[in-house]
Design goal:
Blueprint (H helix, E strand, L loop, with lengths): L24 E3 L5 E3 L9 E2 L7 E2 L3 H6 L2 E3 L6 E3 L9 H21 L15
Length: about 120
């Protein structure tokens, strides 16, 4: 029996498309893919508490604190660094190097780095 046909000749309605299609993925280093944010979406993850706020985790907030907070509802999430403890020294070095690059840019009048965005392939 065809699953779209019911006994007596009745038919099931066609499946409705999803409310919003998933965002296309873009390639990242190592061949992994991450979903692209829809245009106009603030960076960060949607707050699991209210769903309205975006919780942004920066290198500074990750290294400097033990929690992040939703600016919309105030939900606080604990940061568990134990699984990546061996990476902490490398992230600290990245933070120091980034700060030094920004200091040199400011000193010599070079333009600031563009904000991070989707990975782009060079042609």
């Amino acid at each position: 029996m065809n699953p779209s046909h019911l006994p007596g000749g009745a038919r099931l309605p066609a499946a409705a498309p999803p409310a919003h299609a998933p965002a296309p993925a873009h390639p990242q280093a190592g061949g992994d893919t991450l979903p692209a944010l829809p245009a106009g979406t603030a960076p960060g993850v949607a707050c699991p508490g209210c769903g309205k706020g975006r919780i942004r985790l920066t290198l500074e907030s990750f290294l400097g604190g033990s929690e992040v907070r939703c600016g919309w509802c105030g939900l606080r999430l604990q940061i568990d660094k134990s699984a990546c403890a061996r990476l902490i020294p490398h992230l600290q070095e990245l933070q120091r190097t980034t700060a030094e690059v920004e200091r040199l840019r400011a000193r010599y009048g070079a333009p600031a780095a563009p904000p991070p965005g989707p990975a782009r392939r060079l042609r």
